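Batch manifest line 381
LIGAND: zinc ion
JOB: complex structure
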Amino acid sequence: MTSGYVFHPEYLWHDTGTSAGLLPADPTAGVQPAVHVENPDAKRRVHELIHACGLLGELMVIEPRRATVAELTRVHTAAYVQHIKTQSDLRGGGGDAGDGFSPVGHGSYDIARLAAGGLIELVTAAAHGDITNGYALVRPPGHHATANQGMGFCLFNNIAVAARHAQAELGLARVAVVDWDAHHGNGTQAIFDDDPSVLTISLHQAGCFPPDSGWTHENGTGDGTGYALNVPLPPGSGHAAYLNAMHQVVLPALDRFAPDLILLANGFDANVFDPLARQMLTAASYREMTRLLVGAADRLCHGRLIAAHEGGYSPFYTPYCALAFLEELTGTTTHVTDPLAAVVAGYTAEPFLPHQREVIAAAAQLVERISPAATSITGSQ
Ligand code: 3YP
Ligand code: ZN
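JOB STATUS: finished
ARTIFACT:
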């Protein structure tokens, strides 16, 4: 069993500049500039921890390449890809991908192509049997980006590009996307909304971002009806609610769908210290959730679980959540334990409340809309 790892210094060079909270800073209006919340720090510290604790030596390092325009336009419109290039070509940066929340720095076009291409390379290595599973520690993130608009810090939808590549080039016909970032994976959902060959499942904080998105009744359209699942967990949901959602929704849906590949939109911003959400997960929660997903991938698709980094804005806690994730992915342990474990111990014991259970139960009812796949495991190995 080998786990792949994609990282590149250029991912840290994606320049989001300054901001005021989430919006552009405006000194002329008395709005003080601050370092943008989506900055390299948390991701650099994830990479450094993986390196310093020795886990990097256990991983097969895979070199990313830039996704081509042809690969990007399997998902995005040509006009949108060109728009990002135009913004990126501006000297001094200051561009935006569309919603005012998605800064495009000078050169970010090539970096965003390197992020999407990193996912393509990981999926390719898994399809060829060079790795079993893998993790791409990329910036910029991707799960909010739609076919023709950047949103919520995302430029290109890295996971969607990798899913389409897997289907078009690697013989992996059925792709499941699990998204446990604290925010709704609206871009991925929209891209595959009418497509029953890609199942999307998003667990997120209800009504957080995008606003008014990710409700249970969003369940796919046309031929894809039933193949988008949402679990909009109330603010304050933690270990018990997320584990219950895994058992009641994610695992049954995956078992029924029988994917050839599982992609994970791996946001760590549902941890209790994150500034951009109000969920309660700890590193131990990410460990348990990962164990379950690795088990599903082993059972269903030769272990093929490929994760893309998404959100996670606590520089001091994201690295320990990511380390727990990677220990489970690789089946190894390191000498580093969560230094905040004693502080957060009580958080995993918080009660599982009725209003959380109801949301999960409602989503669980939709699982049977997925046609049980009669197929055995397919794809090259
Ligand atoms: C984008 C602008 C307001 C909230 C923010 C969410 C980014 C994120 O982590 N998405 O997964
Ligand atoms: Zn997020």
